[in-house]
Amino acid sequence: MLPDNEKSYYKALVALQNEDYLTASAYFKNAENLVAEDDDLRILHEATELLVAVKDEIAELENSKGNGDR
Amino acid sequence: MNRLEVLKKLETTLEMFIAGVLESETTRIATHKSIDVLDDIARDSLRGRRVHARLGNWLARSDIASRKDRLAEPDITRIGNLFQEIQSGLDRTDPEAKKLDDEIRGWRKSGVVPKRKLVVKMKSPVQSINTAENFTELLKKENAYLTDESERNPHLLSILDDALKSAAAKEDKMYLHLAGAIVYYLKISGYKIGPYAKRLREIELARQDVEHVA
Prior knowledge:
The complex is a heterodimer.
Chain A: H1 4-17, H2 21-30, H3 32-37, H4 39-69
Helix pairs in contact in A: 1-2, 2-4
Chain B: H1 3-24, H2 26-46, H3 52-61, H4 73-88, H5 95-109, H6 131-152, H7 156-169, H8 174-188, H9 194-213
């Protein structure tokens, strides 16, 4: 069987292909030691984290804007 | 440009960046997806489940054989190891399983994946392997198996039942050890373990017979 971290890394890539960034971020965290060893993966992981944070911020701003409009 | 517009622009840029990275790694990702599916099949096979249809599909749909020269060495090794695990659970008296086993042998013969590693049956006169390390590895493997099983079924007795079935059907000694460990744990926790201990003993004796004949 594949080690859990490899399996998580594979699933992270599949989640990214499905544009499910939150799931990808969770799987990347499970594959932390693999990610740390590979520069390309680390950049991909960090870009995913940043994107999740940006999406959160956008949702929050849009929410507060929506509430303010009412 | 207000804050929301800046964030939306950043969002688009990041999405494009990620898509670009994925695009450049399409082949590698396809290989990894394929290995992941094969690993799921191997895990189910090790649990004693019938995997014939899924394995047949995987072999029929996989384009790995046609890309063998472009595959990374670690990926080839991963596939070879997973095949080995799956093969250990295939019963060649079943025609469907035999066909699948033959197909995997064909992959090995044509060099898509490495040929089966030689298994030394005789005990070495000198103990060159570190037993403590082996034991630690065994516990890690058992831990991974237990974690995986517990996600599906939180009952220890069901896990024990599965481990006993696998111990009876498979060569891997991990199941025998794991079943023994669970039985002992239940015993010292005050449970009645008679029927399980009996099954374990029978499996142990059957294995001893097979090893004796071999």
